[in-house]
Every structure is written in C-alpha cells, then in structure tokens.
Design goal:
The chain is of the alpha+beta class and 597 residues long. 47% of the residues lie in helices and 19% in strands. The protein contains 20 helices and 20 strands. Strands 13, 14, 15, 16, 17, 18, 19 and 20 form an 8-stranded mixed sheet that branches. A 6-stranded mixed sheet has the order 4-10-9-8-11-12. Strand 8 and strand 9 form a beta hairpin. The longest helix has 35 residues, at 514-548. The radius of gyration is 37 Å and the shape is elongated. The mean pLDDT is 81.
Amino acid sequence: MSKSASLEVQLSSLPNNPGVYQFYDADGKILYVGKAKNLKKRVSSYFNKKQEYGKTRVLVKKIHSIKHIVVPTESDALLLENNLIKKLLPRYNVLLKDDKSYPWICIKNERFPRVFSTRKLIKDGSEYFGPYTSMKTVRTLLDLVKSLYPLRTCNYDLSEEKIDAGKYKVCLDYHLGNCLGPCEGLQSEKEYHDQIEDIRQIIKGNLKNSIQTFKQQMKDFAEKMEFEKAQRVKDKIEVLENYQAKSTVVNPKINNVDVFSIISDETHAYVNFLQISHGAIIRSHTLEIKKKLDETDEELLQLGITEIRQRFNSQSKEVYLPFPVTVEDDVKVTLPKLGDKRRILDLSERNARFYRQDRLKQIKITDPDRHTKRIMAQMKSDLRLSEEPRHIECFDNSNIQGSNPVAACVVFKDGKPSKKEYRHFNIKTVEGPDDFASMEEVVFRRYKRLLEEEESLPQLIVIDGGKGQLSSALKSLEVLGLRGKIAIIGIAKRLEEIYFPDDPVPLYLDKRSESLKIIQQLRNEAHRFGITHHRNKRSKGAISSELVNIEGIGEKTAQQLLKSFKSVKRIKEASLETLTASVGVSKAKKIYKTFHK
C-alpha cells in the first residue's frame, strides 16, 4: 500500500473525540505530539489544506504513520500532551528551555521536625514546599524562619525513650538561644509543633496568623511586666511586617491565585508565572519556550500554564490571564481589565519582558549565530519580506547647494556592517541639486555593475528618503529587470516611516523594534560615509584651487603636485630644487615665488 493510501486509511479511522495524536516518520521515530478537541478534524487539517508555514509543510511530508489516544475532555488532552512531550521529546514540538533541579524547603517527617533546603525529594512522609526558582528566595525564607522560631538543627533521633533515658545533651545552639533543647525534654512536642505550623503558614505566604500570635504574646508579656521578653517579641513582629511590606504588591484580599503572561518573538516565547498568596508574591518564574512550528501565543501560553502548574504543584483554583485559553476544568479563568488585578498582570508581563531582554543580552555574547537568526527572522516578519535580509544595501545622497554631489552605498551582512564593500559615487549625469535624479543614477550604476560582474545581489535595498527617492530607485531597478526580484523600502527621517513600492500608506515600526534599529543604523552609516566623502572632495577641491590660482599652473599640474607632496603645506615648505624635480624649472620658480614673498 502506498504512503498516501495508508495515511487515508489511518485518517478515516480517527474518532471525533478529544484526544492526543502522534506523528511518526518512516523509521518509526516520533515527529510531533498534539492535542485536539476533535481528533478527526484536527489531524485531517494537516493534509486537507495548504500549510502556511514552511516548517509545517516539511513535517507533513515526513509523516508516515499516526497514533492517537482518546481522553474524556480537552483538559485531559492538554495534560497528556504535556506529559508525552516531556517523555518522548518529539523533534517538531516546542522546547522547554530550563529543565533543571530547583531547591525546595523541607519540613522533615520527624518527632521534632527540622526545616532546611534541599534539591532532592525523598518520599518519606516529609513536607516539601516549592520548587523555588531562586536559592536566594529559599535562604531569605529560612533566615526569616530561624530569626523568629528557635528550631533544632541536629539530626539526632529524638524519640521519647531516648530523651527520657538522657541519651543527649544540649549543644551550643541551646546556649546561644537558637534552640530550646527538645533533646533534653526542655521543650514540649506540642510547643514545637505549634512553631512548625506557624512556619508552614509563613512559607505558604500567610503571615497574618504569625503576626497576630506574636502581638498576643507581646501583650501578655507586657501585662506581666516582662518588658525585655515583650521587646524581643516586638522585634520579631517588625521582622515579619518588613518582610510582608517587601512582598506585598497587590490588594491583600487577592489570595491563592496564579498569574500568567506571555511575551514572544519569531523564535521563542517567554511565559511568566506569579503565585499570589494573601496579596504577596510568593513565587515568580519565567519559562522559555523554543518555537518549532510557528505556534500561536495561545498554544504556547496553554502549554506553559500546564507545565508550570505541574512543576510547582500549584493548587490555586483561579488564574489571571491576558487572553482566554483552556485550563483544568475546576480552575476559574479571570481576564483582568482594571484595578489591582490588572496591575498584577502588567507586573507579570513586565517580568517576562525583562527576562527576554536579559536572555537576548546573554545570547548576543554566548551564541551570536542564534542572535543573528532571530534578528533576521524578526526583520523578515516586520517588513513583510519573502526571505531573510541577510544582505542589505542602503543608499544616501550628499550635496551642499548642488556643489560636489556624491552618493554612498553601505552594505550590511547578517545585520552587521561589511565596510570593505562600502562604495562612494561621484554624480556624473545630474546638474544641480536633484536628489531624485542622483538616486536614480547611483542605483542604476550599482546594480548594473553587480550584474555585469555576476556578484550576489542583496535581499533588501534601503533608500534614505521618502516616496520620491524610492520611486527614482525603482525606475533603475525596472530598467535593469530587477523590480520584484529585490525587496526595496524607503525610510523618511521625520517620523521614521517606512515606505513600500506602490503603497501610499507608510509602515510605522515600534520605536523599540530591533528591525527599526537596524534600518536606522544603515541609514546613519550611509549618511556618515557619504558626508565624509563629500567633505574630502570639497577639501581637495579647495586645496586644488589654491594651486590653480597661481598664474601658469593648471589643474593637471596641481594634481601632480598633490600626488607628489600629499598636501599644500608640504608644497609651501618645499625647496626650489625639490619643486624643480617635480614640475620643471619654470613652474617651480612661479610656485616658489608665490609662497615665499
């Protein structure tokens, strides 16, 4: 049976139920795992329509067999898809970039539990809180706990029998006040467990109970005239309140909520997660996802939510999102528009954006190839190009009141200047200050020469100027038969608007856009290069005229002298004999006499 006939049979047998589908190639290797509300419709869509994206077309060509798993609901499909992606690591599925071991806070399953940080989860009945994305956060929490509650740090087996037998003696921690001596029976099990319950609430982000308990203790000590003890408790209240002030960012009534937002570019997406408890952020994490098949933000956010909630074992029954996506059935989805809820969502988006900026800075240093690919993909998308602009050329005219008209062409390869390929042009066919005609001339000369020499042509031409200069450049491309073969745009200085051929409405790129920054860099570099050449030309013209003004010295002799002596200053300082050797006795005497009056 042929491949197409085999696929048709497999497609016809698919059910109209929710589930997960898996694509395999001819060698039986997993290509892609996806979820669907309706398996038959979703999988058939890969084969029934022309795919917009090249990567998806490549995937479809490689599909040899299809497997599927039916589940009760779409939410179940989402969870199963996430688990299968992590287990099977399909080539064409998005890649989660931070699969590392995170720290936890452990309350050990012991008669007098220890509280410490760990990166290993042992199923021994102990309680684990986390994982935390920063060890600094873990240390801060543990320091807070230890400053409030004296806890044991030894690993002795404090069974009732051993304590009653007097097996242990208090250590230095007891004498320093860091432990109340449960090893000698100096602290009751109930009192110790009351402390552990308070610690449990603090780790969860609920500081309210601990503050109320300490305030009652302070009041009791004060009534008993035990002011030193009352002061120590007051210090603990201040520590708690300071910690709470630093972490509270929204209305304290917002409790047990997960906040998710997403920022994406052409190649990666960044999903930020904030966990809110009693108005305080108790966890923040950003997940980096590498795109494989031009997935939408909705698909990536949905995947990110599932992955993060599983990873951090979140039990929150409400999530704040920037737009609707499917989550677990028993979770409430809120799309904040105003007030504190909207502010916390904005904070999440800001965190995602900062994380992306930091990653891009790191990548620019550590992985320049990836940085270049991302920039090129972004420019292709922003400027609606058919291919990535790996080779860009930019033209700029330069003249002052029509004098010494010149033009410059600068070349960028992979978003970086290629200075050895820069070119100057002296305008030859245009009289007076005519920017349009000058642009038409230099563009024609540049690409006529490249065609004659069979050199590579750019993927993008940038013209410094608006619609007029762009139209002039287009005329030259038309004559050379290159119109439509090379993308061309104009950039006007006033509002940095981008003009396209035959489109009267300009494109306005975001001022922070990397695509606009590359275009501005091209324009500025062309302007700098052109102005430098123009100044040099005017300077040489002025020097040459100083020599030509000497009676009997013509343009040719002036050029010969400048070639020999490099500057007018050296000509002025030259001896009669040296000048004679260069231009002969008669002319040498005239020059020497002029400069030695």
